[in-house]
Design brief:
heterodimer; A: alpha+beta; Gyrase A, domain 2; Elongation Factor Tu (Ef-tu), domain 3; 9 helices; globular; B: alpha+beta; OB fold (Dihydrolipoamide Acetyltransferase, E2P); six-stranded antiparallel beta sheet; three-stranded antiparallel beta sheet; 5 helices; 22% helix; 35% strand
Chain lengths: 383, 125
Amino acid sequence: MSDQPVLKTTPLTAWHHDHGARMVEYAGFEMPVQYEGVLAEHAACRDRVGLFDITHMGEIEVTGSAAGTWLDSLVTNRVVGVAVGGIVYTAMCREDGGVLDDMLIYHLDAETWMVVCNAANHGKIAAWLQSHLPANGVSLDDMSDRTALIAVQGPDSRDLLTLLEALAGHSETVDALGFYETFSLDGPDGRWVVSRTGYTGEHGYELYLPNADALGVWEELMAKGADLGVQPVGLAARDTLRFEVCYCLYGHELGEDITPLEAGIRWAVKLKKEAFIGKDALVAQKAAGVPRKLVCLEITGRGIARQDARVKTGDRDVGHVTSGTFSPTFKRPLALALVAADTPDGDLTIDVRGRDVACRTTKFPFLAARTKGDPRAARTLSE
Amino acid sequence: MVPDDRKYTQEHEWVVVEGDTGTIGVTDYAAGELGDIVFVELPEPGTEFSQGDTVGTIESVKAVADLYVPVSGEILEVNEAVADTPELLNSSPMDDGWLMKVRLADPTEIERLMDAGAYSELTGG
């Protein structure tokens, strides 16, 4: 007998086991944290192409004549006005401006939208949507348990994706697909949603598939990508990849005690929108002065600052590290920190397990994304 | 494959004894569990420690592990190559990736550490 809860699996769980993945519990799922090693997987995605099983994400379809305007009233970014085939990144806030989750909202068809939320917040967001549902004009369908999600990310992702049999007749559509655009097609077991999105800062795609199609697609991508050097990538490298390009991770840079104005996603908050939950609090916070800001830090002393390490200037505690790790691209420790808005640029210290380690503020983001434009654009890593 | 020329601890360290000097490192198993090691902090030579003291840290991309000293004594030397090139701990943890040499204060401590057979059992063979 065990008190361990039964973890959810994905259509690819057995494949991960068979291919040497180290599996961990993540948001109630058993997920691969690494296969070959985080550094090799990180490099494969930056230089070539990586495959990610991110089936743990939540997908909730929202349909009806009022679906768009209703979603617009719940989130910080503008949903109304997003054309069919468009996608918007947004935060969803409480009345006090704290972030319930960050998410993508897909406009799939005239009256059909898809909310893609974080696995850890899936139950909370499903309940929040349900509790705010209007009497008429909107219905919800939580597709998460029957939807697999595979991300294909890296400069060679376009070349790999178009090798898929099912996309053979869609190569022009794939080529024409802009960043944050999506199209759907009829797969063998139902609708496939293809989007040019991702969480790595590289040119990439995400494929939402009926569960039954997932293993076949994954194996086809692995086989056909062999010449491209395709690499399965686990959650550990997914985190270092997003960290270098400074994409927020809920539970780190975002949370119910952090507003989107503080977290560096002001661009996804449209305070001129007529109304949305949390707007009044955010307008008031902006007027009073946003108390904290997200900063990029490079560690100049010896040590790796991890989440929750305190950040100081002199004797003054100014905030904490939200994410910190060794950057595989820069080959040095870096950190994101949420600090008092008046924290000066320049030299700071971080308390790394009782030891003061020197750091200094640096440009945001650490690494520029290559999601738009030339996927193989040369990178400058100068300091 | 656990070499039988040395002793082992529950914390996945190894000690090779030559005279009154113990050379200490972490095991292949520990390095593999940590994953890609990217940072190593070692103690200052000349410092004295007691068995079980925390003397440094080993960090992989995702994890931080304390480094314990498995025997009491004075730190004679640390492996600067590992501090400069932490990946040595992944490529050669049992050999080139040694961490520190200690002058044994109490040689009988060695007797209480695990032999290769016991350590092999601990790590599932």
